[in-house]
Design brief:
This protein is mostly beta strands and 412 residues long. Helices cover 5% and strands 41% of the residues. The strands form eight sheets. It has a five-stranded mixed beta sheet, with no helix packed on it. A four-stranded antiparallel beta sheet has the order 1-17-18-19, covered by helices on one side. The protein has a four-stranded antiparallel beta sheet with strand order 4-32-31-30, with no helix packed on it. Mean pLDDT is 90; it is low at 1-31.
Length: 412
């Protein structure tokens, strides 16, 4: 991860633009619950946390797919991947989005380009792009330059733009889930009481319809003392993270692109930061689906900026869901130098919660460590390993060079 610091006298109100631009052997289990129980007892699992998970404890198959490396396909720093049925999309700094064959790793094409021309999409000052995939329509939505989306299909054909009224939805503040004719939006930054927390946009009209707004405190912009940005936090935080130091020994971290909206089958799910409930989302509103019981590790929303005491609290960074599992990435000591990452699985079949004192899994068959990065469109988990992450045995077996592209790992 790369830490970029801003000066202590940086204007506090500039948090908006900065956060938006920058904006990561054996299974020990808690007492199982019934699969239809609304409660996921993650706090109980902390009492019997394993040192590390083995891939084989949760997955029957693991597949390593090296991505082709040539002058056209070279992936830069801070890679971020989206895995579809037949195509793998990878973004990286100062590079357009690149498409690879999911099965073979063969480079296919670039999808669009970075540029300020009518068909170009935006990047921040460090060269990072933001994009979302409409899997139903086979289109990629890139962040444009004027609160708009720039659209391409998976064959690299330009499909136009979609502009949004900034007074209804500031695209830089939101995480999006795009489905056919609807764009679901989750506002990650409580900067204005006028903007809803959850909304959806119509593809046809660009109209924004509010769904729900949390009655929670606004971010105290005038109390911001300094800002730092970490790039490459897709494992630790779910995305690039903006860190603000507030007066009174307080902090605020946010990863706008952390996956807080996701699909479970055809159902939209939502997890709000500092809220221990997973919701089902529809135009009618939010319905509680599962409650995450953190026990003594619960972190109350009203104390979300407090550094003091956070070493004994759990911060859930993001949740990933498949047909069989919920996967949790979380930390204790979130605002401290001693922050510690954990991961957990909740098995929907038997209600069992398994917690590990690490966010790494060990592939026993290949003696290779890896970290889950996301969920593919076919309901499998995936990881992305750069050459420096691979052991010598894996480098030899996969015929990987030091300067080669990452390796996609599929877990199912």
């Amino acid at each position: 991860m790369n830490l970029r610091n801003l000066p202590l006298n940086f204007p506090a109100k500039a948090l908006v633009s900065i956060a938006l631009a920058g904006m990561y052997f054996f299974t020990s289990c808690s007492s199982p619950t019934q699969p239809n129980d609304l409660t996921i007892r993650l706090g109980d699992g902390m009492n019997e946390a394993a040192i590390e998970f083995a891939v084989q404890d949760f997955f029957a198959d693991i597949d390593y797919i090296p991505l082709e490396t040539n002058d056209s396909s070279l992936i830069g720093n801070v890679p971020h991947a989206t895995v579809l049925d037949t195509i793998l999309l990878v973004s990286s700094t100062k590079q357009p989005l690149k498409a690879f064959d999911r099965s073979t790793g063969k480079y296919l094409r670039d999808i669009g380009h970075i540029g300020n021309d009518p068909q170009g999409y935006s990047c921040d000052s460090w060269g990072s792009i933001r994009y979302w995939v409409d899997k139903d329509q086979g289109q990629v939505y890139f962040m444009g330059w004027n609160n708009d989306f720039v659209r391409y299909d998976l064959n690299g054909q330009y499909k136009g733009t979609l502009s949004v009224d900034e007074s209804q939805c500031n695209l830089f503040q939101d995480y999006f889930l795009i489905r056919a004719d609807t764009i679901w939006a989750h506002n990650k930054l409580r900067l204005s009481p006028e903007l809803p927390s959850v909304s959806y946009l119509s593809m046809q009209t660009s109209e924004v319809t509010p769904v729900f707004t949390w009655d929670s405190m606004l971010l105290p912009i005038e109390e911001v003392l300094s800002i730092s940005v970490i790039y490459g936090g897709h494992v630790a935080y779910g995305g690039d993270v903006t860190m603000a130091l507030l007066s009174g020994d307080r902090k605020f971290y946010t990863a706008v692109d952390s996956p807080s909206l996701w699909l479970s089958g055809s159902t939209v799910r939502l997890k709000q930061d500092f809220n221990d409930t997973i919701y089902t989302v529809s135009p009618a509103g939010l319905i509680p689906y599962k409650v995450i019981d953190l026990g003594k590790w619960h972190w109350d929303e009203k104390d979300q900026y407090q550094v003091s005491g956070c070493k004994d609290k759990i911060h859930i960074d993001y949740v990933l869901e498949t047909d069989r599992y919920f996967y949790f990435h979380f930390q204790t000591g979130f605002y401290t130098d001693e922050a510690r990452s954990y991961c957990a699985f909740y098995d929907k079949r038997n209600g069992k919660v398994s917690v590990a004192q690490s966010d790494k899994l060990l592939d026993n068959s290949n003696n290779q460590s890896l970290q889950i990065r996301g969920v593919a469109s076919d309901d499998s988990f995936f990881a992305l390993l750069k050459p420096e992450d691979l052991l010598p045995e894996a480098i030899s077996r996969l015929k990987i060079g030091e300067e080669d592209n990452p390796v996609l790992v599929i877990l199912k």
